[in-house]
Amino acid sequence: MIDNSTTTVTASNTAIGVNIHLKDSHEIISFWCLHLAYLSYGPYAANNKQVTKLKQILQGEYPEAHNGRQDNIMALLKTPEFIKAVQNSDKNALIVCGDFNSPSHLDWTEDTKSLHGGWVVKWPATYLLQTKTNLIDSFRELYPDPRKFPGITWSTVHRFSGEEWDYTIPEPLDRIDFIMFKSPKLKVSDSFTYFGNELPNQIPNHKDNDYPSDHFSVITDFSINF
Which of 41, 113, 146, 169 is most buried as measured by Cβ atoms within 10 A of its Cβ? Predict the structure, then answer.
């Protein structure tokens, strides 16, 4: 369905945006792939029993160095090419996806706080992106209940951490990879996670896994109405 006519409109160290021209039509999909900052992973702070204030958790999202995930999203929201893509999303379908290295504000709610160290958190990476653009989380569009359908993407091989504790420390598992969209022409028909054909072995026994990533992949099928 897609020909070789793909134009890069902008690129940075955290985002790349391309226009995909669909074969045999005049339709364009504005496709953006993100890879946000990976340091100061929020669930680590949320599950630290010495952390007593929400501000402590969120400090990792917008540190004084201005290199956090909130900073990444704020930079994206100020990017002229992205602003144009959002404004034109009624005409050209907009898809934003990638590794956010952050949970979703849709998942850390009052109903689920028992699963997240007792915290309710409006994670700014997803919250700002969705509230400022009206992008739709494709997985949550199909499965709105995070308790029934957690959609975990971290991690395929890091279920337990701590080499010096013989990998007996539970790793906070979460949904940190997303496919979001904005277009009256797109409808979600399916969305799921994928990790290969075989159950992956955990670290340190992961070298022979048939799936190479430490993240589950997210796959969303869209029906397109042009």
Answer: 146
Q: Cα(149)–Cα(212) distance, rounded to whole angstroms?
A: 24
Answer yes or no: are the C-beta atoms of 224 and 185 closer than 8 Å: yes
> How far apart are the C-alpha atoms of 179 and 94, rounded to whole Å?
11
Rounded Cα–Cα distance for residues 36 and 62 (Å): 12
Range of 194's domain? 2-224
**Number of folded domains that form the chain:** 1
DSSP state of 100: -
DSSP characters over 45-58: HHT-TT---HHHHH
**For residues 108 and 73, what is the distance between their CA atoms, to the nearest angstrom?**
19
Task: Say if CB 133 and CB 182 are below 8 A apart.
Answer: yes
CATH code for the domain in which residue 76 is found: 3.60.10
How far apart CA 47 and CA 64 sit, in angstroms, is 22
**Per residue of the chain (226 residues), what is the pLDDT tens digit?**
445 588 899 998 899 999 999 888 889 999 999 999 999 999 999 999 999 999 999 999 999 999 999 999 999 999 999 999 999 999 999 999 999 999 999 999 999 999 999 999 999 999 999 999 999 999 999 999 999 999 999 999 999 988 899 989 999 999 999 999 999 999 999 999 999 999 999 999 999 999 999 999 999 999 998 7
Place of tokens 């949320």: 46
- Distance (Å, whole) CA 218 – CA 176: 10
> What is the model's pTM?
0.94
